[in-house]
Amino acid sequence: MINVSTKIHDQFSIEFKVGFDGAEQGRAGDFTVNTWIFIPYSLDINNGTYGKDQFYRDVKSNVRLITPSYALEALASPESKPQSQVLQACRQVQQVRSEANASECAFQVRMFAAIFKSALRDETKAILSINQASVLNARCEALVDNVQGILRNYRTITCHEDSFSHADEYMSHLTDVQLTKVVKHLHSLSTEELSGTRKLLTDAIICERKYKVGKGYSHIDAQASTNNSEMVYRHGLLKKNIESALYLRKDTAPDSDAAQQISFGAAAGIAMILSTLVALPFQKYLGNYPFLIFIILVIAYIFKDRLKDYVRARFAHRLKSKYYDNKSIISFKDNRIGWIKEGMDFINDAKTPAEVLAIRNRSELEADNSILCERTILYRKQVHVESDKLRDRNQYDFTGINDILRLHIQQFTQKMDDPTLNIDTVGLDGKLSSVNTQRIYPMHIVLQFIHNGQTDYRGFKIATTRNGISDITQL
Known about the structure:
The protein contains 13 helices and 14 strands.
């Protein structure tokens, strides 16, 4: 099963999260993601102005495991698998202090915090969709009981590792944030029946905040002179630290390096043979004219040099379809489990599948693109994961992976016009006024996903201005 979500990550970047769920035991997981990026001609993005190195600087791609799914209620039990794994890992590192045990302990507490984050987020999201007071009261009471139970059970474990306290601080911050979202939702309903539930949640938030202060953890301070910048920075560090338990490590190198060197060497050899065949007959018949031989050899060398570059370019063009720009070996807990290949090229409509062009669906009015040829970037990615190696020696049954692609577009905005435009207009009352309008440049992105013989497409329209991304809609 393939799941896709997208969001505006920040002012100049878009994030696509593609989940490949359902890798079967006993077989490798192969996932392919092809991304077509359609860019207006007027932005001057092409082979000459925007190379591969610039593209890979603007693209951040991560592959991570899908977080194991647990209901919040199940996680609150002291006998839950995540809780048991943390307890066992902490005991092992206390009994035998070793690098392996410390690493396993850090992994288990990070996994517990990641599972808690996912379970709390899902429960909060479900509650925010409820408007019936009686149902909300019951769900919110259960939410508080489960969250407090989970944190209480976790904090009864004796563990002096830094990773343990880091996970505790992270979960405390998540509790504050998610419960506050629920309180805001209850206030928006303005129902007297919910007053008791609002107080219950508020008391739970205040209690958790006092705990953070007592432990010296970072927390939101309305009176802080630094705009809570340290808190935001630290939470970002904690988030990356916790999620590192799920990310697959990548060691990247050029994919076709050996093949390129062999092909380029063959090109030089072919050019040398042909130039020698041209020069030999002249040497035989003009042996008494050394100056003419010299001129012919110079011409033959020029011919060889140009021929070598031509043959080399032809070989390189053929390699493009068989090799990628980069190949990354991916590892989980220091065990190699597969690889990722990625490549980027500018292509034309003739090399773009009809299904992709249909989703793009250019309008006749888009003169900038139809007359002057819209620029198309194809970003290819192939992921191969050995499912059995992933499951081997891991207590959790990971169901699949998430491919997270973040595209930074600031490079594309450099030649855009001013984002705002004032237009004079006469109203229905006959009065003259000036209306402020926004000038946008639409970019279109089409993604193709291939997994277990299933192919799926998603299309998105990105409204961009020189000030960044203003909107994103699915086609």
